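User: Can you recover a sequence for this backbone? Please restate the input before giving your answer.

Assistant: Of course. Working from this structure:
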C-alpha cells in the first residue's frame, strides 16, 4: 500500500466491526459527518472504518464522507447478510462478485486470500428481508445472499472510480423468517429503534425474545468471523 492511501470499510452498525477492531492498531476516532468512524492500521495498511446506518443512501453518504476527507484508494462494503441459498450457514463468509439492486448491477472485486469463502450474486435491497418466502424469490432470481447497503457503496465507488469489494457474514438462514418486524423499527437515520424492538417483542415475548437473543449471538459470532477474514485479505 502506498503511504497515505487507505482502505475505506463501510458497514451499517459499529458492532459489525467488533471482530475487525481486535486486529487494528492505533485506532482513533474520526470527526466525519457520519454516525461512527474510526481510523487505524490493519496489517500495516491504513484503514478507515465507517458505520452510518442501514440502507443504500446512508452507505453512499459514508463513501462521500471518506472521499471528502481524502486518501481513499479502495472501498469495501462489509457487515452482515441473510442467506438465500440453503448451503450457506451462520457465520459463513460471502464475497460478492456482483451486486444487484433492481435493474442495476455492479461488479465487485475478489480479495486475495487463502481463506475459505463463498462467492456469487448479492441482492442489495432497501429493507430487511423478513420472510423465507421473500428470500426464496430473491434466490430464484439468482442471488445467493441479501443485505441493504452494498448497492449504495458500489454506486458511489463507481462514481469516484474506486476499486470496490463486498464482504459479508451470514446471520440468518435461507429458510428462516423473522417474527419481529425489523422494518417497522428502522428509523430515518438508518438506525434500528431499540425501544420499538423491545415493545414489539413484548407483544409475543415467548416467541420473540428468544429470536432476539439468538440473533444477537449470531451477530457476535458473525462479526468475529468477518474480522478474522478481512484481516487475512489483501485488497
Amino acid at each position: 500500500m502506498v503511504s497515505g492511501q487507505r482502505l475505506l470499510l463501510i458497514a451499517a452498525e459499529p458492532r459489525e466491526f467488533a471482530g475487525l477492531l481486535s486486529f487494528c492498531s492505533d485506532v482513533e476516532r474520526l470527526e466525519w459527518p457520519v454516525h461512527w468512524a474510526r481510523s487505524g492500521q490493519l496489517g500495516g495498511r491504513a484503514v478507515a472504518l465507517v458505520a452510518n446506518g442501514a440502507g443504500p443512501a446512508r452507505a453512499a453518504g459514508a463513501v462521500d464522507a471518506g472521499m471528502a476527507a481524502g486518501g481513499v484508494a479502495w472501498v469495501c462494503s462489509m457487515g452482515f447478510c441473510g442467506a438465500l441459498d440453503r448451503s450457506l450457514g451462520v457465520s459463513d463468509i460471502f464475497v460478492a462478485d456482483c451486486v444487484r439492486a433492481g435493474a442495476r448491477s455492479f461488479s465487485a472485486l475478489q480479495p486475495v486470500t487463502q481463506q475459505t469463502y463463498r462467492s456469487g450474486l448479492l441482492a442489495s435491497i432497501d429493507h430487511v428481508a423478513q420472510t423465507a418466502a421473500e428470500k426464496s424469490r430473491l434466490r430464484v432470481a439468482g442471488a445467493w445472499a441479501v443485505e441493504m447497503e452494498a448497492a449504495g457503496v458500489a454506486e458511489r465507488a463507481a462514481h469516484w472510480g474506486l476499486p470496490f469489494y463486498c464482504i459479508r457474514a451470514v446471520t440468518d438462514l435461507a429458510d428462516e423468517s423473522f417474527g419481529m418486524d425489523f422494518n417497522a423499527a428502522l428509523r430515518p437515520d438508518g438506525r434500528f429503534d431499540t425501544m420499538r424492538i423491545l415493545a414489539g417483542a413484548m407483544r409475543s415475548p415467548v416467541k420473540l425474545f428468544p429470536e432476539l437473543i439468538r440473533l444477537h449471538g449470531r451477530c457476535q459470532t458473525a462479526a468475529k468471523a468477518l474480522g478474522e477474514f478481512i484481516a487475512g485479505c489483501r485488497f
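That completes the design. The helical segments are 18-21, 56-69, 132-140, 150-160, 194-202, 205-231.
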